[in-house]
Design a protein that fits this description.
Two copies of one chain form a homodimer.
Chain A (H helix, E strand, L loop, with lengths): L5 E6 L13 H18 L4 H6 L2 E12 L8 E11 L4 E8 L5 E13 L5 E2 L3 H5 L25 E4 L13 H9 L4 H6 L1 E9 L8 E10 L2 E8 L2 E11 L2
Antiparallel strand pairs in A: 1-3, 2-5, 2-8, 3-4, 4-5, 5-6, 7-9, 8-11, 9-10, 10-11
C-alpha cells in the first residue's frame, strides 16, 4: 500500500507570480489540484478511475489559511491526505511547507462525486477512501456558511468565456477564484494580503452565461463574495485580509 | 558546458485542459516560458542574472504552429535552443514532441533585453548567447508583420485586473493570448482548431488600463487581432484555423 500522505514538490515560477513577486491564491489552488489529482490517481480513485464508473470528482468547498506566500523560485512541498470519508462527501487536507519544513499554507477541501449523466451526487466508495485517512493535524477552520451579499450590492457583470472552461465545459474552479480576487483593488493587495480564503461551489457556470460578481465588507478586512446567475448564487466566497 | 538544446518534460494536467480535453495555446505558452526560463538560468542568462545587471528579458514576438494538441495526461517533451543571437534581439526556438518523439508544436520566439530603469532596449551579450546557438531545424515561418484591424472593428472593452499582472506589474504575456482567444466563439473551437498563432508585443499593459480587443477575418479562417489602449495597439496577433 502507498503511504497515506502524498508529497508533491514544486518550484515557483517567476512568470507566474503576481506583481508582489508572490504566488497567487489561484496558483496555490492549482498546486492543490495537481496534488489531489495525482494522490487520488496513484491510489485508485483518480480522474480515470472515476470516469470508468461514469462519475467525476467535484470540488464543493475549499478553505485555505496562508501564513506566508511562496516567493520567487522558492522550492515548496505540498502534503495531501484524506481527513474524513463520508457517503457523499470526502475531506482532503493540504499542508504547504517551505524548504526548511515550515508550514506556509493549510487547506481543507470537501469533494463530492457526481454521476456524469445526471450530474447528481453519487455515493462514494467510503471503504476504499478510508484506507488512506491520515491522522495528521490540519489547523484550518472547517469551511462554513457564507452569508449572501448579492442582494446588497450591484455586482460586476461577467460572461463565461472559452478560457474559463474546464474539460467538462464548465467554469473552471480556479477561474472562480481568479474572477473573485479581481474584485479587489490593487491598493489593497499592496497594503495587505489575504490570510484566509474560502470558497463554496454551488452550481456550474456554463459558456456564455451572464454572471454578476459581488463583494461586500462584512467586518473590518473581511469580505463576503458571490457569483450569481439570474440573481441566484452559483458560488460564495470569503476573504480575510491582514497587514503583514 | 551544458548541452545547447534543453529538454523539459511535462505531463498534461486534466484540470488545465480546455472543454475539448486539449491543452490550450496559453498553456503551451506556459510550457515554453518554463523551458525558456530554466534553459536560460542554467546557462547563466536567466531572470536573476539579468536582474543583477538591472535588465530583464522581454518577449517581443512568438509564432507557434500546432499540428496536434496534447491530450489528457499525455507526457510531452519540449526542446528549446537559441536560433540566432543579435545585438538587440535573440531568437529562441521550441519543439514539442509526444512520447514517441513525433513533433506536435514548433515555435519561434524573439526576445529583447530592457533596462529596468529606463524600460528601453539594452544590448545583449551576443558572445555568451552565441555559444548556445544550436543548428536544429525549426520549421515555423518567422513572425512577420501583422496588419492593423483596430480601425475597422469596434473592439470589446477590457480593463487590466490584478490577475493579469506579472511580477513587473505589467499585463502578463500569457494573459494577452488568453484575452485574444476569448474573442472567438465556442462554436469555432468545436469545429476547428488553431494551426498557427502569432503574437507581437508592442507595449506594456498596466493595471486599470482600459483596453479594446479587436478581431477581424482577413482571409478565410485567418484572423488578425489587436489589443489597443486609447486607439494605439499594444499588441497584434494572428490566428489561422483549420478543420481536423
Amino acid at each position: 500500500m502507498l503511504e497515506k500522505i502524498g508529497t508533491f514538490h514544486f518550484v515557483t515560477e517567476s512568470y507566474l507570480l503576481d506583481f508582489r513577486g508572490r504566488v497567487t491564491i489561484p496558483m496555490i489552488g492549482n498546486y492543490m489540484l495537481h496534488a489531489a489529482s495525482n494522490h487520488a490517481s496513484l491510489r485508485g480513485f483518480g480522474f480515470s478511475d472515476m470516469t470508468e464508473k461514469h462519475t467525476a470528482w467535484v470540488l464543493s468547498r475549499l478553505a485555505m489559511e496562508i501564513s506566508r506566500y511562496p516567493a520567487m523560485s522558492e522550492p515548496v512541498a505540498l502534503y495531501t491526505w484524506i481527513g474524513e470519508a463520508g457517503r457523499l462527501f470526502t475531506q482532503r487536507c493540504f499542508e504547504l511547507v517551505d524548504a526548511a519544513g515550515n508550514p506556509m499554507v493549510y487547506a481543507r477541501s470537501i469533494w463530492a462525486a457526481i454521476d456524469m449523466q445526471t450530474r447528481r451526487p453519487t455515493p462514494l466508495d467510503v471503504e476504499a477512501l478510508s484506507v488512506y485517512i491520515a491522522d495528521k493535524s490540519c489547523p484550518v477552520e472547517k469551511p462554513g456558511k457564507i452569508s449572501p451579499v448579492e442582494n446588497e450590492t450591484e455586482g460586476v457583470p461577467y460572461k463565461v468565456k472559452y478560457s474559463d472552461l474546464d474539460i467538462n465545459g464548465h467554469l473552471n474552479s480556479i477561474k472562480y477564484m481568479e474572477h473573485l480576487l479581481d474584485l479587489f483593488d490593487l491598493d489593497l493587495f499592496t497594503a495587505k494580503e489575504v490570510k484566509r480564503f474560502e470558497i463554496a461551489y454551488l452550481s456550474e457556470g456554463r459558456y456564455g452565461m451572464p454572471l454578476t460578481l459581488h463583494r461586500k465588507e462584512t467586518a473590518p478586512d473581511k469580505y463576503n463574495m458571490a457569483i450569481c446567475h439570474e440573481g441566484k448564487a452559483i458560488c460564495r466566497a470569503t476573504a480575510s485580509w491582514i497587514v503583514r
